[in-house]
Amino acid sequence: MFSQSVLAATALALVSSCNAHMILSSPVPYGLDSLTNSPLDNSGSDFPCKQRSGVYDISEMNNMKVGESQTLSFKGGATHGGGSCQVSVTLDAKPTKDSQWKVIHSIIGGCPTSEAGNLSGDSSYDGATKFNYTVPEGMPNGEYTLAWTWFNKIGNREMYMNCAPITVSGGADNNDVYDKLPDMFVANLPRESCEVPDSMNMVFPNPGDSVETAESSALATSLQGSGCASVTKLGAGAGKAGTAAEATGAASGAAGASTPVSTPAASTPAAGGVFAPGAASGSYTATSMVSVVVTQSAAGAATTPAASPATPAAAAGTPASSSGDCTSCSSNGSVVCIGSDSFGICNNGCAVKQSLASGTTCSNGTISKRDTSKVHKDSHRKAHARALARAARSLIHKQSV
Fold first, then answer.
1. Looking at the record, which segments are called Disordered (predicted)?
2. Last-in-domain residue among 265, 295, 325
3. What is the pLDDT of residue 123?
4. What is the DSSP letter of 356?
5. Could you read off the pLDDT of 110-146 as tens digits, one per residue?
6. In this structure, which of 84, 194, 321, 338 has its CB flanked by the most CB atoms within 10 Å?
């Protein structure tokens, strides 16, 4: 029979899991007074931006200059083991389901944290990882909308989406750069039709040129479900970009570019190596990923070099060859075997070597469980031989006595 203390702790955990999800802290979101920390409704009825009364009320305008570092931060402690996030924008000041969303930054794993489980049960907790992003050079000037989307690693298959008003300056008077950006990734709406695999970090199929990998283990490059073709198109809306409104100075007083935040050191892969993603129904293959590698300086401060533009993929049919940490490859998103105990995911002609999980092997682009039957048989034969040898020595000893 459970004690009262155990029941109380269980009840507290349930309350925390229900009431302490995550919300966007910076940039300041729309509708701050009515924004809840829950995910989008599974039906997608409140997509985009958690539709509700007062959804586009502006308490503070976020002023951003193109090319300047901005801060992405959160409140809440129910971080669900992290996951993958994107920062996207639409030129619509009050987005609808027809709005076209374009990705300006992708975070693979470790968002909002790489910690297992939840950080805290406090909805005001602000200790989750802070990230940096920029509005790309050449983006149109004016007022429009930024969105933070999150696909949690552990728990119900959900999609979180908070939106914020932004005023962009120092950019262009056209949509040329905006139009070339990839569409925002959408899944888990509803989860029964198309979901991100549980306990995995989603590798976005088209993350854009600004990408950082905050956690490199448990990567998924496929979605599960028969309805992914329609669900993943929601980010494109009606397929037409709007026009950014001229800056009006609404709810002025917001600071300019956010103060840059030190990027945490890259997470260490979980013990046992990286688990390569397996095939799933309704597969959705990754086509492009540019990783930002965090290095440690002599003084111990983490520095993050800028992501370099994607390089052309190697010609089809070119055999994989190794050069330093990069193994050349020809098919983006494919698994490349690097020896029998390592692998990489092809990214624009380069596969970075990663360790396989214990008990698995890589052969001909396929990750599979290592055949241990022969090992067990050999081990059994050796043990049997050792037992016979001990028995023989014992018999000889008795006869000599």
1. 359-379
2. 295
3. 75
4. B
5. 999 877 766 666 777 877 889 999 999 999 999 999 9
6. 84
Which residues 6+ apart lie within 8 Å of 100 measured at CB? 90, 91, 183, 235, 236, 237, 238, 239, 240, 241, 242
Tell me the mean pLDDT in the region 186-202: 96
Residues 71 and 125 occupy one common structural domain: yes
User: Residue 209: inside a domain, yes or no?
Assistant: yes
Residue where the block lists tokens 């007022």: 143
- Cα–Cα–Cα angle for 192, 332, 352, nearest 5°? 105
Q: How far apart are CA 358 and CA 144, in angstroms?
A: 48
Per-residue pLDDT, averaged over 99-108, amounts to 98
Residue 368's pLDDT is what?
63
Last residue of a domain, one of 295, 321, 350: 295
Query: Residue 311 and residue 212: Cα distance in Å, rounded?
Result: 17
CATH, residue 272: 2.70.50.70
The torsion angles phi and psi of 89, rounded to 5 degrees, stand at -135, 150
376 — pLDDT class (breaks 50, 70, 90): very low
Q: Are 350 and 362 in contact (CB under 8 A)?
A: no
Domain count, the chain: 2
What is the reported pLDDT for 329? 79
Residue 198 falls within a domain, yes or no? yes
Q: Are residues 43 and 129 in the same domain?
A: yes
pLDDT digits (tens, 9 = 90+) for 140-177: 999 999 999 999 999 999 999 999 999 999 999 999 99
Q: Could you tell me if 240 and 125 lie in one domain?
A: yes
CA angle, corner 80, sides to 79 and 86, nearest 5?
70
Residue 71 lies inside a defined structural domain of this protein: yes
Domain enclosing residue 336, as ranges: 311-371
Task: Name the token pair of 384.
Answer: 């049997």
Same domain for 171 and 97? yes
Predicted TM-score of the model (pTM): 0.62
